[in-house]
Automatic annotation (TrEMBL):
Residues 10-19 have a biased composition (Pro residues). This is CBM20 domain-containing protein. Pfam families: CBM_20. One of its GO terms (cellular component) is membrane. GO terms for molecular function: starch binding. It comes from Vitrella brassicaformis (strain CCMP3155).
Length: 179
């Protein structure tokens, strides 16, 4: 007791330490036995894997056969899979040549010195064949007349191809690009 008569307690006892419950006590008794892990026999897994590989291989061969047949059909017509034919009627004078120039590498990237030379045919019909990969996307192009160092560009809008298909012949008219 203190001089004022108040009771002074002694040191406080240590609180009990928290002990987590045994996790097994929360699991119902029927489930406390360990279950073996779910396994698939190795032979079953191997068989499934081998079947998937075989299916993939068959699909690959079917796709390759379909592509080979498509190319055979095109070869029978004398056309390569990516070959596009261009035709245009254009009156030129002796010594002038017609060229095809455009927005993609096979057409010279708009550089007249790298343009594709066309072949003159009876009736002033000019033709050429260009290998344009189907995956190339949209193509813009023009025709130019060259004689010596002089270049005369086709007037009007550019001609456009929205998609490329091998074996197709594009018939154009001079100055009639659709932009």
């Amino acid at each position: 007791m203190s001089a004022t008569g108040a009771v002074v307690p002694g040191p406080l006892p240590e609180p009990p330490r928290y002990a987590p419950p045994d996790e097994q006590q929360w699991v119902p008794a029927a489930l406390r036995t360990k279950l073996p892990p779910k396994t698939v026999p190795r032979e079953t897994t191997r068989a499934r894997y081998q079947q998937l590989l075989k299916d993939k291989e068959v699909k690959m061969y079917e796709d390759a056969l379909a592509e080979a047949l498509r190319r055979e059909r095109l070869a029978a017509t004398g056309v390569t899979p990516d070959a596009m034919n261009f035709r245009i009627k254009c009156d030129t004078r002796f010594g002038q040549n017609l060229y095809l120039v455009g927005s993609v590498e096979p057409l010279g990237l708009w550089d007249p010195s790298r343009a594709v030379k066309m072949t003159w045919n009876e009736g002033n019909m000019w033709t050429c064949t260009v290998n344009l990969p189907v995956s190339i996307g949209e193509v813009e192009y023009k025709y130019i007349v060259r004689q010596d160092n002089m270049v005369d560009w086709e007037h009007g809008h550019n001609h456009k191809l929205n998609s490329v298909q091998g074996g197709v012949t594009v018939e154009d008219a001079w100055g009639q690009g659709r932009g």
